[in-house]
Amino acid sequence: MSTSKIWQGNSTFILAAAGSAVGLGNIWKFPYMVGSNGGSAFVLIYLICIFAIGLPVMVSEIIIGKYGRKSPVNSLKKISQEYELNINWKYLGVLGALAGILILSYYSVFAGMAFSYIFNLFPSGLENPSNYSSKYFLDFTSSPGKLIFWHSLFLITTCLIVGLGVIKGIGKSVNFLMPFLFIFIILISLYSSYVGDLKSTLRFLFNPDFSAITPDVVISAMGQAFFSLSIGMGAIMAYGAYMPEKQLIGKTVLTIILLDTFVALAAGIAIFPIVFSNASLEVTAGPGLLFETLPVAFYSLPYGNLFSIIFFLLISIAALSSSISLLEPFTAWMEEKKKYTRRIIVVYFRILNLVFRACQHFFF
Ligand code: PFF
Asked: How many A from CA of 23 to the centre of ligand 1?
């Protein structure tokens, strides 16, 4: 790989990998998984999985990417050839690249929704904000036009960044976006702790109830740990190829994991105090927690509109930095085939995705 594709300085790799890890999985999925899996029991198993399984897997992915200096498919191929291993290992990279674009196709729908919520401010003077919120959510999710519009806007932004390349697109965007993300999550959790019920939240998150640990909770926590760290799909392996030669892998991975865990717990502290202080909200509300119930709580709080905008902006930034990494393994692999440039690849991907959405809408 040419040195023009290696990030300068250690921070870009950390921000890019942390950007990949921190996403809807932390801010949307983690709180509702905690809520519907017994609170602290889930958090405990999740943390064990992150450090006992996630850490070594992330180190391995980065080592493969950094050694191969190519897309995951070709890094795995190169290593298999050099060490006379079975060449079929490269198909692991193929599966990862395909899994990435499949995940992106639904990830971008929720991300688009978060994007639209930045502009969804409740009209003032509502008698029943709960009804308004449920109706808005239902209208939105049953309107293909709205879903396609917002999802397309989000996906086009993702394609633009990836199309601009590793340095000018991904590197520059994470350096710009990630500091905002960290500032926003701290701001929102401070706000929630102040206006909501922090005491119940801390008990709910950190007072382990061992009787709530069941095989289902363990499996869910493990799945969440893999998803949250973006491991097992080649995203981190693809970024490993752009890591500066001298950067230390162990220290870097520890920083990324700590940042990811910090944001997941901060998201819990941003959401649960509001839920606990509002009798009509349920911690077990599931996926609708973020889109249906939280805006109602913001509505009734001081400066709620402003914090609602910041909150959904935060989710959109987190989702964007993750979606870039979902598209990168596929793009890097296609680019190595030398037939197409990055820009053409992302345009093809976007058209394909649009056709897929249209087919889904008309035939299913
Ligand atoms: N880690 C991201 C999140 O928590 O939202 C999702 C993700 C990104 C999963 C990239 C897998 C991946 F390759």
From this structure: 6
138-187 confidence digits (pLDDT tens): 899 899 889 889 999 999 999 999 999 999 999 999 999 999 999 999 99
Could you tell me the distance, in angstroms and rounded to a whole number, from the CA of residue 277 to the centre of ligand 1? 31
Give domain 3-363's CATH architecture: Up-down Bundle (1.20)
Asked whether the beta carbons of 41 and 213 are under 8 A apart, the reply is yes
Q: Which residues sit with their C-beta closer than 6 Å to ligand 1?
A: 20-21, 23-26, 100, 227-228, 230, 233, 235, 322, 325-326
User: Which residue has a Cα nearest atom 12 of ligand 1?
Assistant: 230
Residue 209 token pair: 């109830």
Position in ligand 1 atom list of the atom nearest CA 329 = 13
Query: How crowded is residue 255: how many other Cβ atoms within 10 Å of its Cβ?
Result: 16
**Pairwise CA distance, residues 97 & 91, whole Å:** 10
Burial code (b: 16+ CB inside 10 Å, e: under 16) for 27-46 equals bbbbbbbbbbbbbbbbbbbb
Yes or no: say if 41 and 209 are a contact pair by the CB < 8 Å rule.
yes
Q: Best substitution site from 92, 230, 261, 330 to test ligand 1's pocket, by max atoms within 8 Å of Cβ?
A: 230
Closest C-alpha to 27, from 336, 343, 311, 284: 311
- Cβ atoms of 96 and 75 closer than 8 Å: no
Task: Give the mean pLDDT per block of 10 residues along the chain (364 residues).
Answer: 79 97 92 85 94 97 97 97 95 96 92 92 83 88 90 93 94 95 94 93 87 91 96 96 96 97 93 86 77 84 90 95 96 88 84 76 64
Rg (CA), the chain: 21
Closest C-alpha to 292, from 146, 185, 140: 140
Q: How far is the CA of 60 from the centre of ligand 1 (A)?
A: 17
Which residue's CA is the nearest one to ligand 1's atom 10? Answer: 230
Look up the pTM and report it: 0.91
Q: Would you list the domain boundaries of the chain? A: 3-363
Query: For residues 58 and 256, is the Cβ–Cβ distance under 8 A?
Result: yes
Q: Which two tokens stand for residue 324?
A: 């870039």
